[in-house]
Amino acid sequence: MRTPFRLGEVFVLIAALGMQAAAAGTSGAQERAALEFLNAVASGSAQAVAQALHPDDLHRLRAAITARLRADAAAGDPTLRQRLFGEASNLADIERLTDVNFIAALGARLRYPGRPFSKLQGLEAVKDGERVHVVVRGEQPEGRGKTRVVTLVTLLPYGKEWKAAVPGEIEAQVEDLLDGRSPAIGMVPQRAVAPATGVSAAPGAAPPAANTPQILSMLSTATDTLVAGRCDEYYGQYMSPGFRRSTSAAALAALVKGCERSDSQRETLIAALRIVHDSTPAYDRGGNRASYDLTARGLPYDRFVLERVGERWYIAE
Prior knowledge:
Strand content: 15-25%
Strand order of the largest sheet: 1-2-3-4-5
Largest sheet: 5 strands, antiparallel
Radius of gyration: 26 Å
Mean pLDDT: 85
Number of domains: 2
Low-confidence stretches: 1-22, 188-206
Structural class: alpha+beta
């Protein structure tokens, strides 16, 4: 004689059947898209990550951020733009970026750790409306260890293929930036910060050397020269002799003309000098070379270098 189901067992069975209907095995296309995204993250390149994301999802995120930037610009408030893209950025240049370059520029302020994989095994795919959450087990490349790591990637259909959606963690970090919240730290090792400089230093180490009075004086007068529009003087007197020797006369003339004709180009040079003026350098070559990390400051380059020739400091590159 068969024992009848109790009412609670019926509900459990219905719920189990529903979960089976929502979850399914992963396809080869889904595994390829997940592998592309995870290896892009592991590369450390924000550009590679942006290219691995679904273009429609990229555009959605970019449109939402741009709307906030335009509203703040109309109100005369640069805070959000500077927080997201650096103090040297401007809205016109940001709006000209492609979706991929926009997210890549923003990526300098995001943290999304990853690990490279040589192969993925799909474990489960769970539909969530148009999106599919894919659980995969990754094998690390030879020499990286034998532990297989389970992770999750959210995908969106892309023709007959799939592309990664913008991860919820990245969207949450963007919200933190937009709303001025401190990001969650998690298990990230904390480094000591040298007082008043904002430069990380190992505990017990001597604080980094600041700009010398000679450097500060040179940067100030070079800035004043550009503000006055004297681009020929800037390139003729403040760029290093080595730079002028290695640059052809035609190329140097083109730099001067570009500076004279383009307010945007001149403002970028001025912004760089002002940022360097307030930054702390790393000295090498017996104290005759000073390098500045300008990553994520809104400039088209990440490094600025000064060099001393005789008793004078010049802009080297």
